[in-house]
Write a structure and sequence with these properties.
Length: 101
């Protein structure tokens, strides 16, 4: 198996997700979950200067690793558990066509 650096992986992720903010945020979510295990804050700073990333990706990368930033909160909330209120709104809107699992 090829052993690549975190920066190389994120550059590939940036290329794959160009044009899709949600796709990019999902890559970042994986990294936030592993925060500190594969990279340092200096790695984040260095990567944010890499021209292989779009301006949006560079800005959102830095924001994703700042505590209490709205971008970080959004990314952390991805794939989170659905709140009961949201489930009930969907069920009320679509009736019995939405099945519980």
């Amino acid at each position: 198996m090829l052993n690549m650096s975190w920066s190389d992986y994120m550059i590939i992720a940036a290329r794959h997700s160009k044009g899709s903010a949600q796709h990019w945020f999902r890559y970042l979510r994986k990294d936030i979950d592993k925060c500190g295990t594969h990279f340092s804050i200096q790695d984040v700073e260095d990567l944010s200067k890499n021209m292989a990333l779009t301006p949006f990706q560079r800005v959102s990368l830095k924001a994703a690793f700042q505590e209490d930033s709205p971008t970080r909160q959004h990314i952390i909330g991805l794939n989170g558990r659905a709140r009961r209120e949201k489930i009930m709104k969907v069920r009320a809107k679509y009736g019995n066509s939405v099945q519980s699992k």
